[in-house]
C-alpha cells in the first residue's frame, strides 16, 4: 500500500514517542454549501429582473402584470385596466405598461370601450398619438388625467389639438363648458357657441329649486332638476319640496333614464318603482307581470312607463291599455298626461265584464244589455268613444254555433260618423270588417261562430263618433241605444 504521509519514518517515530498528533486539513463542506446557495439566489434575482423587464415591454403577456387582465378597480363589473375587448387573451385598451395601476396605452374615456388617448398607431407598444397630460406654461392644456390616470379635463377626442369636452377655461382644475351627463361623450350642459353663449346652463344652488340643472355640491355638474334637452322642462332628479335633494325620477346610474320613484310625464308624485328608503324600488315595479299580463311597460326606451299603466298599484291596467297585443295603447288613453283617461274609456277592472252563460238545455236567446254603456241614451259629440267587454261561456256538454246581433236599436244619426267594431279578445283580432257604421235597425254583428264545450269567448265592443274635420253639426247631440243579442243558433253534433 502506498503511504502518502508527508512525514519520514524518523519523524513519525518522534511524533509517536512524544505524543504529538496534528489533524490534517479538511475541506469545509458547510462553507461550500453556503457559497452555492448565495450563487443560486443571485441567479434567481437576475432571472426575476429579466422576466419583469420583459413583461413591461411585452403587452402580449398581460397575465404577468401586477393588476392582471381585465382588472375591475371599483367592482362595478366594468374593466378599468388591461382590458381585453376581443377575448383574445391580450390587453387592448387601458394598458398599464409600468404596473403603477394607471392606464398608459390606448386609453378610453369613462366606461366606454373606444380608445381615444395615448394611441399606439405603429404597434411598437408606445403611445404616439393624442397624448395625455399635454402641458402649456406649466398647466395641463389637453387630455388632463386624474389620480387614476383617466382623462377628465380638456378632453380632445379626435386629436386635433382642441378640447371637445369638459373644458377648463379658467384653469382652476374644474370643467366650465361643454359638460357631459354621466360618462357620455356628448356636450349637454354649458354648451358654448362661437359667441360665448351657453346653452342648457348649469345653475348654482341658491335655495331656489325652480331653476333647471342645479349644482348643489359645487362640482360644476347638475345634481337636481336635470334636463338633457334645453327645450324640455326638467325631468330627472326632480326636487319637488325645495330642499335641494332629488325626490322623484331619480337617475342613479346617470344614463338619462329614471331608476326609482318615477312619475307620470309632468307629474310630481312617485307612481312606479316606488322606494321606501329613497334608493331601492319595492312597489309597483316597472315592468311587472301579474297573472300573465305585462304592466308598466316602457315601449320607447326613455325609462318612463307608457303602456299598460297600473297607476294605483292595483295589479291591472288602468291607463293607456293595450288590448290588441301590439304594445300600443288602445283604451283609456291619457292624452294630456294628467293621469286620467280622456278617450276610449272602459272599465278594465277584472270582473267588470258582462258574462252570458249559454246552456243548450235551457237557453236559446241570450240578451246582453249594456246597462252602463255610455252610448245608451246619451247625447254624443265628435270624438266620443266608449266600449264594453263581455264573455260568452258554453257551459253545456255540446259544441255550439252562435250569432251576435244588435237588438232594439234606436239610432237617429243622419250621417255615417258613428261607428263600431268588435274585437275577439281570445286571439286579439277584429272580427268585424274594420270600423262599421252603427246600424239604424236591428242587424247581425258576427254570425256562425263555433264555441266548444266548456270553453269561452271574450269580446270587446267599441263605439266612436269619428271626427272628420268637417262640419258635423247635423249629428251634434244625436243618440244611439241598443242591446246585444247572443243567439245559440245550433248544436254541433
What does this structure look like?
The chain has 493 residues and is mostly beta strands. Among the domains are: 248-344, no CATH class; 354-492, Sandwich (Jelly Rolls), CATH 2.60.120. 8% of the residues lie in helices and 23% in strands. It has two helices and 25 strands. The protein has helices at residues 9-18, 29-56, and strands at residues 107-108, 115-117, 134-136, 139-142, 144-145, 151-153, 191-192, 198-199, 203-204, 214-215, 274-275, 281-283, 288-290, 293-295, 354-358, 365-368, 378-379, 385-394, 399-411, 418-424, 429-430, 436-437, 443-451, 456-465, 479-492. Strands 15, 18, 20, 21, 22 and 24 form a six-stranded mixed beta sheet that branches. Strands 16, 17, 19, 23 and 25 form a five-stranded antiparallel beta sheet that branches. It has a two-stranded antiparallel sheet with strand order 1-2. A hairpin with a 6-residue loop joins β1 and β2. It is elongated, with a radius of gyration of 41 Å. It starts with 8 loop residues before the first helix and ends with a strand. The relative contact order is 0.05. Residues 49-64, 360-365 and 370-377 have low confidence and may be disordered.
Amino acid at each position: 500500500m502506498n503511504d502518502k504521509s508527508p512525514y519520514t519514518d524518523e519523524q513519525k517515530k518522534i511524533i509517536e514517542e512524544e505524543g504529538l498528533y496534528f489533524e490534517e486539513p479538511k475541506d469545509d463542506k458547510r462553507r461550500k454549501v453556503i457559497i452555492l446557495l448565495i450563487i443560486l439566489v443571485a441567479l434567481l434575482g437576475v432571472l426575476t429582473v429579466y422576466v419583469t423587464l420583459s413583461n413591461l415591454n411585452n403587452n402580449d403577456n398581460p397575465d404577468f402584470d401586477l393588476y392582471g387582465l381585465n382588472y375591475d378597480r371599483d367592482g362595478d363589473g366594468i374593466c378599468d385596466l388591461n382590458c381585453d375587448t376581443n377575448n383574445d387573451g391580450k390587453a387592448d385598451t387601458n394598458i398599464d405598461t409600468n404596473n403603477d395601476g394607471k392606464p398608459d396605452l390606448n386609453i378610453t374615456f369613462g366606461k366606454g370601450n373606444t380608445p381615444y388617448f395615448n394611441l399606439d398607431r405603429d404597434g411598437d407598444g408606445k403611445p404616439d398619438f393624442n397624448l395625455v397630460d399635454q402641458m402649456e406654461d406649466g398647466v395641463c392644456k389637453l387630455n388632463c388625467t386624474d389620480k387614476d390616470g383617466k382623462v377628465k379635463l380638456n378632453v380632445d377626442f379626435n386629436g386635433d389639438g382642441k378640447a371637445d369636452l369638459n373644458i377648463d377655461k379658467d384653469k382652476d382644475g374644474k370643467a366650465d363648458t361643454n359638460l357631459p351627463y354621466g360618462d357620455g361623450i356628448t356636450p349637454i350642459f354649458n354648451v358654448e357657441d362661437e359667441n360665448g353663449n351657453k346653452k342648457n346652463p348649469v345653475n348654482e344652488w341658491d335655495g331656489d329649486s325652480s331653476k333647471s340643472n342645479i349644482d348643489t355640491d359645487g362640482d360644476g355638474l347638475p345634481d337636481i332638476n336635470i334636463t338633457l334637452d334645453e327645450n324640455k322642462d326638467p325631468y330627472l332628479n326632480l326636487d319637488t319640496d325645495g330642499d335641494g335633494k332629488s325626490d322623484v325620477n331619480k337617475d342613479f346610474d346617470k344614463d338619462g333614464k329614471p331608476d326609482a320613484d318615477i312619475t307620470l310625464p309632468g307629474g310630481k308624485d312617485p307612481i312606479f318603482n316606488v322606494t321606501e328608503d329613497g334608493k331601492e324600488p319595492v312597489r309597483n315595479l316597472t315592468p311587472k307581470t301579474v297573472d300573465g299580463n305585462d304592466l308598466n311597460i316602457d315601449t320607447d326606451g326613455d325609462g318612463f312607463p307608457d303602456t299598460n299603466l297600473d297607476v294605483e298599484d292595483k295589479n291591472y291596467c288602468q291607463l293607456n291599455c293595450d288590448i290588441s297585443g301590439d304594445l300600443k295603447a288602445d283604451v283609456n288613453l291619457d292624452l294630456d298626461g294628467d293621469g286620467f283617461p280622456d278617450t276610449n274609456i272602459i272599465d278594465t277592472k277584472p270582473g267588470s265584464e258582462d258574462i252570458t252563460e249559454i246552456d243548450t238545455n235551457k237557453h236559446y236567446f241570450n240578451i246582453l244589455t249594456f246597462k252602463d254603456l255610455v252610448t245608451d241614451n246619451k247625447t254624443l259629440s265628435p270624438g266620443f268613444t266608449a266600449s264594453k267587454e263581455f264573455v260568452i261561456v258554453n257551459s253545456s256538454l255540446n259544441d255550439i254555433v252562435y250569432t251576435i246581433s244588435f237588438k232594439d236599436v234606436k239610432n237617429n244619426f243622419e250621417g255615417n260618423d258613428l261607428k263600431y267594431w268588435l274585437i275577439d279578445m281570445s286571439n286579439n283580432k277584429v272580427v268585424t270588417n274594420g270600423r262599421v257604421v252603427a246600424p239604424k235597425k236591428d242587424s247581425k254583428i258576427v254570425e256562425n261562430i263555433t264555441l266548444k264545450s266548456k270553453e269561452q269567448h271574450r269580446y270587446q265592443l267599441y263605439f266612436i263618433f269619428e271626427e272628420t274635420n268637417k262640419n258635423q253639426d247635423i249629428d251634434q247631440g244625436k243618440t244611439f241605444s241598443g242591446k246585444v243579442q247572443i243567439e245559440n243558433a245550433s248544436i254541433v253534433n
